[in-house]
Design goal:
Structural class: alpha/beta
Shape: globular
Distance between the termini: 53 Å
Order of helices and strands: EHHEEHEHEEHHEHEHEHEHEHEH
CATH superfamily of the largest domain: Glycogen Phosphorylase B
Strand order of the largest sheet: 3-2-1-4-5-6
Radius of gyration: 21 Å
Number of helices: 12
């Protein structure tokens, strides 16, 4: 059977696979919605790494989010096999592996879907080409696309068009709203200090805090749960003892509920930036090594600023340049964006 000829009514159960990072799950949502709407009446399931699964668990048009155990460098067969067996019992008509890495390719084969679609790309283990029965080459573009648009590459197989402004869409757990209000009373501007790579982190948060305070802005600072990120937050509080700090949160679902309360979110290029945008929170994003055009939240409610040209290696986690690109973003420029973003905006209830 030719996959492109699948009847929209006949195709009833779809498994979308995405084994990447936190922000990638958010940036996938426009493509997921387009897929759901194209195959009318379909039941859409999504398979994510278990630590990321809460991001999509409360999206109303996703039938089920499957949490897959993942430890880098380890197959974790003992924990993974029960999930694979359960997926096989769903009898999926179609699986689509958006990331196309080795883990996703193997799970695509094992899940037992009748038709298995994945990206056509070089590399990977030798048996990878047998894991899919349709390999889709991404459409060629003159310039790198925003990642939310690039996710539509596989959907070109069905003629699904890329929207001009893909809308990110996630939800926080409503049951955690009361707890989130206790943790973050009011609706302040939330500033996230850390990213996954030190070279993406902005070195001017202390000066920004003082300048924003002088402009009458209420700020709360936070960082991820990891040791390095919490150390960075502790170092900040040693320099600015009067700053309001968000305590470490118990899990990702609670962070989503807290983040939803923010009036505005400021950070470098990191997963929580995309979480904020997906929750409908306006953002200011600070970019250095990565490009605004590919990764910054899109829309009138979002603002971005790019540092100087990056000279360090793209593979390096730490910047070795004498003039780091992130350092070129002036605190007064970010305060200007902040004041402009909040101009005329009332605090949400």
């Amino acid at each position: 059977m030719v996959l492109g000829a699948f009847s929209r009514k006949r195709l009833m159960k779809i498994l979308a696979i995405q084994f990447r990072y936190l922000g990638d799950a958010v940036l996938l949502t426009p493509a997921l919605r387009a897929l759901k709407e194209h195959f009318t009446g379909s039941s859409l399931h999504v398979l994510l790494a278990e630590e990321i699964a809460p991001v999509l668990e409360h999206v109303p048009w996703i039938e089920r989010v499957w949490a897959f155990p993942r430890i880098r460098g380890s197959a974790t067969v003992q924990r993974s096999w029960p999930i694979v067996k359960a997926l096989r019992q769903e009898h999926f008509d179609l699986s689509i592996d958006f990331a196309g890495n080795d883990r996703g390719a193997i799970v695509s084969l094992l899940c037992g879907a009748k038709q298995r679609v994945g990206p056509k790309r070089p590399g990977g283990f030798l048996g990878r080409r047998f894991c899919y029965n349709e390999h889709v080459a991404p459409p060629s573009t003159a310039q790198p696309q925003h990642q939310a648009k690039a996710n539509f590459g596989l959907l070109s197989f069905w003629g699904i068009e890329v929207p001009v402004h893909p809308a990110l869409e996630i939800r926080a757990d409503p049951a955690r709203a009361g707890f989130a209000e206790e943790l973050l009373p009011g609706c302040p501007v939330l500033c996230h200090l850390a990213t996954s790579q030190p070279k993406k982190e902005w070195p001017h948060w202390v000066e920004f805090y003082h300048r924003a305070g002088a402009a009458g802005q209420e700020l709360v600072f936070c960082a991820g749960p990891g040791t390095r990120e919490q150390t960075l937050l502790a170092q900040f509080t040693e320099q600015v003892r009067t700053a309001a700090i968000l305590p470490p949160l118990p899990d990702l679902a609670t962070f989503l509920a807290v983040l939803r309360r923010a009036r505005l979110f400021i950070s470098g290029d990191t997963g929580p930036l995309h979480l904020a945008a997906g929750l409908g929170v306006p953002t200011i994003s600070l970019f250095g090594p990565s490009a605004i055009g590919q990764w910054a939240p899109q829309g009138e409610e979002h603002r971005s600023i790019q540092g100087s040209a990056c000279t360090c290696s793209g593979d390096a986690a730490v910047c070795t340049s004498a003039s780091p690109c992130m350092a070129a973003i002036a605190p007064q420029a970010v305060v200007g964006l902040l004041v402009d973003a909040l101009k005329g905006k009332s605090v949400k209830a």
